[in-house]
Amino acid sequence: MLEAETSTLPASQAERERLEWQTMFASVMGGDVLKSEKTRIAVALESLGDEQTNLHVNIWLGLRAKLHSRSEKEERQNLEEKRIRIVNSSLDELLLFRIPDSIRHDTDTIIQRVAELLRRLDLAQSLYPSLKAFYLDKPLTGSDAFQRRRDALNTWYNTLYHLRLQIGLLRRWTGSDTLDVTQPNTCKEVAIKPRKLSDGAYSSTPEIADGTSFVERVLKEDSLQRTFEKGFLVTLHAFVGSSRDAQINFAPLFEEMNLPRFEDELVPLISFPTKLAQAGLRMRLDYVKRLKEPDMLIVEQTMEDLKLSIGLACTLKRQYIDFLASDQGGNWLMPECLCEDYDSTILEALAIFFKLLHMKLKSAKGMYLKETDVLEAQWATLNDISSTVPGGSFVVAENLCSLVNKLMIRMTNYFDTQVRMTPEQIISWYGKVLDSVRLRYRKLQRFARYTLTQRFSNSAEYSLENTPLETFITALIASEHFLVYTESMEEDGVYIVAPVSLYNRPETISQIINEAYSVDDINAERERQDSRPFDDENEIYEDEEARYVLILSPRHHFLWTGPVMVLKLPKVELDAKDDRVRLIADGPQRRLAIAKQVFKEILEPVDEVGRHIESPLNRLPCIAEAQAHFPLVDRELRKIGRAASRLAESIVDSVHFVRSALRSAQGYQELMENWYLFASEHGQHAQRYMDRSSLLKFNRLLVKLAISWVSFICDDCEPTDRKTFKWAVNALEFTLHRTKRNILHLPNEQFEMLRAKVATCMTLLINHFDILGAKSMLEAKREKGKHHEYAIDNEDDFTLIDQSSAFSHVDPTTHLFWERVTRALQGREEQRAMNIKVGRVLDDEKPEDRSLVFLASSSSNISIRWQQGRFIGAGAFGSVYLAVNLDSGTLMAVKEIKFQELTGMPNLYSQIKDELSVMEMLHHPNVVEYYGIEVHRDRVYIFEEYCQGGSLAQLLEHGRIEDEGIIQVYTMQMLEGLAYLHSKNIVHRDIKPDNILLDHLGVIKFVDFGAAKILAKNQRSIQRSRRGTEWSPYNQMGGANGAAVMSNGLTGTPMYMSPEVIKNDKRGRHGAMDIWSLGCVVLEIATGKKPWSNLDNEWAIMFHIGVATQHPPLPEPSQLSEMGINFIKQCLIIDPMRRPTATELMDHPWMLEFREALLSYEEAELATNPPTHLPSDESYEHASVARQAAIIQEREVEQIQSRSPTTPSLLSSPAFDPNF
Q1: For residue 1025, how many other CB atoms are within 10 A of its CB?
Q2: Does residue 212 contact residue 273 with C-beta atoms inside 8 Å?
Q3: I need a surface site. Which of 4, 303, 332, 989 has the fewest CB within 10 A?
Q4: At 1081, which helix (H) or strand (E)?
C-alpha cells in the first residue's frame, strides 16, 4: 500500500514532507534495535511468569508438607511416587472403562464402580498444584476423547445421584415408598393425646394423628395449584429436562461404556406430578358426585375448583408429552408412564363441569342476561382440554351445543309464558319483557350461529347416487389421492381417502378424523381476520394448502389401484349413509371452503385450453354445504336450529296476542310499534337459516305479521300524530318486502284486506306530505339522524449414595475432618426427620402447651374430610381460606393459625379456648355457625360458616343504604340475633358493622365473640376478652378497625360504646350495651356516617360519650322515616335502666310495620309458588327474615335439580315447561 502510494509523485511541498516523515517512521519500526528489544522483554516476562508459578507451587507444596507433617523434600518425593503409581493407571482405566454385560442391569454396583473411578481421578488431579500443571504433565488429559469420557461419567453419576435424591425426598414428603399419593396412613405426625384403652388407661404406643392419604393432606393444608408452584416441583421439572439433555448429548459414550440409560430410573419422577394431579381431580369428582341438593354458592365454588384442577391436569400432560418426545437420533426412548385412565378422568371431569354449568345457567333469574357471557368465559378451559386430550373436542362440541339448545328452548318458554299473562301494569311489563328477550336473543343467537355453528361445521356431504363409482375412484387416483387403511372402519364399508399432501402426516389425518375442532386452526383464523379485516370470507388464496380427508361409504365394492397408507385408528362413529362422500376439512369456514374448492376442481376436468369437459362427476350433488362431521355434534347443531326456528315463530306469533291484550290500555301504541319492529327484524334474520320444510310455513306467518302491522297503523294509531307517519312507512316497507314474491299465493280474503289497509295507509301518508315543502332542512337532518341511530340500535348483533465412600479424601487428617462434618449433618437430619415424624414436643410446664392439650381434648375437636380452597383474607394471627366439607358437601370458612408465627403470645391459646366455648353454645340463623376445630402440634384449624357477602362495613364503604325497606330487613335480623344471644345469657359487647356478616342470600350473621361475656345465673361474670380484633373474620382479622381492649378492661370499639361502658357503670338492663351499639349501627346504615363522626379521634369520642347527656346526631328526615328515627332514639336512650331490650324493640311500630309486610309477602309467595320442602319451624322460630331466605334457597335448589326442556314441535302451540 505504501509502495503504491509513494510511486505517485508529490504534488506539493507539504505532501513531500509528509511522505518523508512516513518513510522515516517505517524504517524505525522495522529496525533491528526494536526487534531485539521485543525479544528481550518477552524472555523477561516469561521468566517472571515461571517465578510466580514456582512461587504458587512452593506454597502448595509447603501446605501439603505441613498438613502431613513432612518436609518439603519428603512431600515432593511422596508426590512423585503417587503420581507414578496412581495417575497413569487412572487415566488408562478411564479410557478403557466399560461395564461388563454381566452387571449391566445392576445399577447400584455400576454406581459404586463409577464413583470409585471418579474418586481416583480426583485423587490423581489432587497430586498437582493446578489443573494446568496436570494437563502439562499428562497431555493425554487434554485430548477431546479423554475430556468427553470424563464429562460423560461425571454427568451420568451426578444425574443418577440427584435422581435418587429427588425420589428419596418425594418418599419422605409423601410418606410412601412407592410414591402412592392415595395410600392412607402415610402421615407421620403422632397424636397429641394418647389413645384411651378399654380399661381406662392410655396406650403407650404412639398413635398416628392423621390417617389420611398424601393427596388429602395436600388438598386440606394447601391447594394443588400452590403445591405445584412451590420450588421443589419446579426444580423437579427442570431436573427432568436436564436429564433428558444429558441422555441425548452423551448417548454414544454411554453406549460405548455400556452404562445404563436414565429413562427407566426417571419413570417414578416423571409420573409423580400427573399421578398427584389425577388423584386430586378424582377426589374432587368423588365430592361432586356426593352432592345432594346443592345451592348456587356450592355450584359456583365447585365449578371454579374443577376448572383449576382440570387446567392443572392438562398443563402437566403437555409437559409430560414434551418429556416423552424422542430426538431425531433415537437417543431418548422414554417409556409410557401416564396412567391409562388419565384422559378419561379429565373427560369425566369435563362432563361433570358441563353439568354444573347447566345448573348455574338454569338456577337464577338474574342469569338471564349473562348466559352467553358465562359460556364465553369457559372457552379457555374448553380449548385447553380440546387441544390436550384426545376426544376432548368432541365432548366439548356435543355438550356445548346441547347446552345452548336447552338455553334457546328455555328462552322460548320464558317468552311464551311472559307474553301470555296479564299483569297489572301491562304496558310497563310488556316493555320489560321485550327489552329482556331482545337482548338475550341477540347474545344467544350470536353465540349459537357465529360461535358454535361456524366453529364446529367442518365438513360437507356429497351424494354418489347417480355417479359412476369407478369414474369417481379413477378421478381420485389421478389426482394423487391415497387410501388410508385403518384396520377398523373398512369392515363397516367405510373408507378413508386423503390427498397426497397428507401422505407423510399421519398425525394430521388422525386429528382431522378424531377431533371435533382444532384450537390452533381457530386461533390462526382469528389472527388472520384481525390482520386482514377487509378480506372476503369466500376468497380462496392459491398459496394455501388444502388439508382434508374423504369418508367414502359406497354401496358397491370398488378396486383401488393407487397408493395405500396403513394407519391404525380406533373405530369412529361417523354414521355414514350408503353412497355418500363426506369431506372433512382441518377447520371450519375458510379451511372448509378451500378444501371444497380443491375437491370441486378434481371433479371438473378441463381440456388443454382450460375449458371444462362434460363429465358425470360434474353432477355430484352437495347434500350439506357445511355440517359437523361427528353425527352427535351435528344433531345438536340441528336441534339449535330447530329451537331457533321455534323461538322465531313464538316472537312473530306473539304480536297478535300482545296487540289484543293491550287494546284496552292507554298509550300502548309506541310499545306495540317496537314489538312489530322486533318481530319483523328477527323474523327476516331467522328466515335466512331455516330449512325448506319450515320456510314455507314461516313465510305465511310473516305475511300475516305484515297485514297485522298495516291494520295496526290504520285502526289503532292516531292519524294526526307525527309518529304514525314514521310507523306507517316501516309497516309498508315490510309489507312490500314480504309480498314481493308471495303476492300470488295469498288467499283472496287476505289480499282484499291487505289492499284495503294499504290504501288507508297511503291516504295517511298523503295527508302528512307538505305540498309547499315547508319542512325545514334542520328538521329533515334531525329525522335522518334518528333513523340512523335507530338502525344502529336495532342492527343484528349477532437413594441415596454414600457420599463418604464416593468422594472422601485419602489423607487421614482431611478424612477425619469430613467424617466429623458428615456425622454432624446426619445428626441434624435425623433430628429434623424425628420432628417431622413426631411433631413438636409438648411441655406440660408451659401454659400454652397445656392449652393446646385442652383444645385437642375438646368436644369440638372434630375429624372431618375437607379440602382447602381459595384464600379469603389474612390478619395478625392467621389466614382464612374457603374450604369444602367433603362429608356434608357444604362450604366452610377455615381459619388457620400457625403457632411458630405467634411466639411471644402465651395468652393466644386461652383466647381461642374462650371464644370457642362461647361459639359452640350458639345455633341461630343470625349467628355465624361454628363447626369445630382440628388441632395439630404446629397449627389449629377453626371451621366456621362461610359468608360470601362479606361484612356490613364493606357494604357501607359504597355509601348509605337508601331503601328503608332494606334497612328494616337488616334491623329485624339484628334484633332477632341479639334476642337469641341475650336469651342465652350472652352479651356480645362488640356490635359493629365489621362484626356483622352477610351470606349469599343477604342473611345477617353476628361474628367475633372474642369480647363476649357469659352471665351466670347468679349474675357473676366470667369475662372473656381478647387483644385487638384478631378474631374478626376474613379481611378484618388482626384489628384492622381498631377494636379496643383498654387497660381498664373496656372491650369494644369506642364509637359504638354505650355511656355505661365508658363510665364503667354496672347498672343497666341485660344486654343494654348491645342495644346501644345496635342503634349506632342502624344510624350508620341510614346515614352512611359512623356515629360521632363529627368528633376528631377515639379519645374525644370516649370523653364525649362519658360526659354527654344526649345521643349522637340522628338521621335527617330525608334519610329515614319518623318511625325509623324514633326506633334509633329508643336504642340510644342514655339511661341503661330505661333502654328497651331486643324483644321489646321487636314490638316497636317500625318493626311491626315491617313484620306485617313480611308476613303478607310470605303468604302470597306460598300461595302462588310454594317450594316442595319448607324449612322447619323449630330452626327458624325466631328468625323470620332468615326463614324467607331459606324458602328462596329451597326454590333455587329445586330449580337446579329440575329437568331440562326438550325441543317442542315446530309451528305448534306454545308449550311451557315449568321444570326448567
Answers
A1: 18
A2: no
A3: 4
A4: helix 1072-1087
In angstroms, rounded to a whole number, what is the distance separating the alpha carbons of residues 366 and 1001? Answer: 13
Lowest mean pLDDT among 698-702, 801-805, 1190-1194: 801-805
Q: Which residues pair with 898 in a beta bridge?
A: 939
Catalytic residues: 990
Q: Domain 858-946: which CATH class?
A: alpha beta
What letter represents residue 442's amino acid?
Answer: R
Cell readout for 808 is 472422601
The model's pLDDT over 257-276, given as tens digits with 9 standing for 90+, comes to 999 888 888 888 888 889 98
Provide the greatest CA pair distance for the chain: 133
Q: Which residues, listed in sequence order, are joined to residue 551 by a DSSP beta bridge?
A: 496, 582
Residue in this structure with the C-alpha cell 378492661, named with its chain if needed: 1049
What nine digits make up the cell of 723? 309518529
Annotated binding residues for ATP: 895
User: Looking up cell 383464523, which residue turns up?
Assistant: 525
What phi-psi label fits residue 667: left (phi over 0), alpha (psi between -120 and 50 degrees) or beta? Answer: left
Q: Give Cβ neighbours of residue 613 (< 8 Å, ≥ 6 apart).
A: 605, 606, 607
User: Residues 1025, 1039: contact at Cβ < 8 Å?
Assistant: no
- Please, is 661 exposed, middle or buried when counting C-beta atoms within 10 Å of its C-beta (0-12, 13-18, 19+)? middle
On the question of pLDDT at 155 being above 90, the answer is yes
Per-residue three-class SS string for 406-431 = HHHHHHHHHHHHHHCCCCCCHHHHHH
In DSSP terms, 939 is beta-bridged to: 898
Sign of CA dihedral 923, 925, 928, 933: positive
Query: What SS3 class is residue 1043?
Result: coil
CA dihedral in degrees (761, 763, 769, 772; nearest 10)? Answer: 170
Model pLDDT for residues 589-632, shown as the tens digit of each residue:
888 999 998 888 887 766 666 566 666 666 788 888 889 989 99
Q: DSSP letters along 532-589, please?
A: -TTS-TT---TTSPP-EEEEEE-SS-----S-EEE---------PPTTEEEEEESSST
Query: Cell numbers of 152, please?
Result: 460423560
pTM: 0.71
Strand 580-585 to 459-463 pairing: antiparallel
Grid cell 310455513 in the structure block, residue? 697
Beta strands in 570-687 (DSSP E): 580-585, 622-627
- Angle between the 144-174 and 107-126 helix axes, to the nearest 10 degrees? 130
- Residue matched to cell numbers 518477552: 42
Helices 519-531, 379-388: axis angle to 10 degrees equals 130
DSSP 899: G
Provide DSSP, 1200-1213. HHSPPP-PPPTTS-
End-to-end CA separation in angstroms for the chain = 96
Give dist(CA 219, CA 867) in Å, integer: 5
Give me 790's grid cell: 335507530
Tell how strand 564-566 and strand 482-485 pair up.
parallel
Report the distance separating Cα 362 and Cα 1201, nearest Å: 9
Question: What pLDDT is stored for residue 645 in this prediction?
Answer: 83
Q: How far apart are alpha carbons 551 and 584 in whole angstroms?
A: 8
Parallel, antiparallel or unpaired: strands 996-998 and 1051-1052: unpaired
- The average pLDDT across 668-697 equals 81
Q: Looking at the chain, how many residues does it have?
A: 1220
Distance CA 457, CA 451 (A): 10
Q: Which amino acid is at 349?
A: A
Supply the DSSP symbol for 986.
E
User: What CA–CA distance (Å, rounded) separates 1147 from 1154?
Assistant: 11
> 341: which residues sit within 8 A by CB, 6+ positions away?
278
Is 1042's pLDDT higher than 70? no
Least confident among 37-41, 524-528, 750-754: 524-528
Distances, alpha carbon 939 to alpha carbons 599, 864, 946, 1029, 1116, in Å? 69, 16, 21, 20, 50
Domain 951-1016+1050-1166 in this protein, CATH class: mainly alpha
